[in-house]
Amino acid sequence: MISASVPNNTGNPIGVFDSGVGGLTVVHALMERLPCEKIIYFGDTARVPYGVKSTETIIGYARQIAGFLLARDVKMLIVACNTMSAVAYEEIRRLSAVPVLDVIEAGADMALVATKTKRVGVIGTPATINSEAYTRAIHSRDKEEWGVTDGSKEEVESYFQGICPQARQLIELPKTWKRWATADREPIARWSFGRATLLGDAAHPTTQYMAQGACMALEDAVTLGEALRVNGNDWVKALDLYQRSRITRTGRIVLSGREMGRLYHAKGVERQIRNSLWKGRTQERFYDAMEWLYGWNVTNCLTD
Ligand SMILES: Cc1cc2nc3c(=O)[nH]c(=O)nc-3n(C[C@H](O)[C@H](O)[C@H](O)COP(=O)(O)OP(=O)(O)OC[C@H]3O[C@@H](n4cnc5c(N)ncnc54)[C@H](O)[C@@H]3O)c2cc1C
């Protein structure tokens, strides 16, 4: 273990660790940029190399080192080892009450800044390559694009590592994969302008987590028909009634979808809280919580 102290620092140290001495390049960069920070560096030179060891062994080592540094009141952990970042990052985050940074996210960012062809070669240990951590990190940064483009089975597989064999069978079935653009936009307060209005995704694009895009487009159409019927085909009045009847409900879908996405992908303590809140909840309680969504029908679709 090497300890690098810099004067004038009153805060807790930053814990940096690696399977060997390679992570000292990270420490060097930190000392240049954050000269007042105290740093504790742990290099596991006794057990290096990690890259050819099993996942379980690497996670076990990472747990020990993270525990060692956390016991020294570090205010942040930096996993300066690619192998540990690739294999044990989630476990370290789970253990740690302080923020944890890894080197893969930063590496993926830099690779995408540098590449001109969007083809990125990764040189790594067997454990790093087999984990597909770089594949996931690089694909997750693809910029938003409209429309439908070709996807790949490799990309899908990289998101579903370690799933049970029955679920894996589903991934084997499709012959082609598509990447569909989804849009997340703030709800807007006005859809109708005289005799023109918006409906469907044009009015309220939403993420996929409530699976309600098409349902809301159909509800819009039904509501628009009802609004015209009760207004005797007075278009301006009908479109005004239509938007008043729809904006709050579809806005709730947009915001709830965003929240559901956050919950589905929760990590660390947030994931534990989610699991404990949902554990033991009865089917009836789940249904009750969804009454506002599925209780909609044509007889109650207009606000007045
Ligand atoms: C993979 C995937 C899965 C989904 N799963 C669900 C689900 O389970 N449940 C659910 O409720 N929703 C789901 N959705 C969302 C749902 O498909 C959309 O919310 C719904 O299709 C929106 O309907 P829309 O009529 O507003 O728009 P669209 O269906 O997108 O229709 C718009 C049409 O306008 C055309 N168009 C665009 N520009 C022009 C132009 N300039 N001139 C002429 N025509 C134009 C387009 O070609 C398109 O045909 C899913 C979406 C995707 C991509």
Characterization of this structure:
This protein has 304 residues and is an alpha/beta fold. The protein folds into two domains: 1-141, Rossmann fold (3-Layer(aba) Sandwich); 200-294, no CATH class. The protein contains 13 helices and seven strands. The protein has helices spanning 24-33, 55-70, 82-95, 104-114, 126-131, 133-139, 153-159, 165-172, 213-230, 235-264, 268-278, 283-289, 291-294; strands at 2-4, 14-18, 39-43, 76-79, 100-102, 148-150, 178-180. The strands form two sheets. The chain has a five-stranded mixed β-sheet, sandwiched between helices. It has a two-stranded antiparallel sheet with strand order 6-7. Helix 4 (104-114) packs across helix 6 (133-139). The structure holds flavin-adenine dinucleotide. Flavin-adenine dinucleotide binds next to helix 9. Flavin-adenine dinucleotide (FAD) binds at residues 180, 200-202, 211-215, 217.
Characterize the overall form: elongated
By secondary-structure content and strand pairing, the structural class works out as alpha/beta
**Radius of gyration in whole Å, from Cα?**
26 Å
Beta-strand percentage? 5-15%
Index terms:
single chain, 9% strand, Rossmann fold, binds flavin-adenine dinucleotide, 304 residues, 2 domains, elongated
Write a short abstract of this structure:
The chain is an alpha/beta fold. It has two domains: 1-141, Rossmann fold, CATH 3.40.50; 200-294, no CATH class. It contains 13 helices and seven strands.
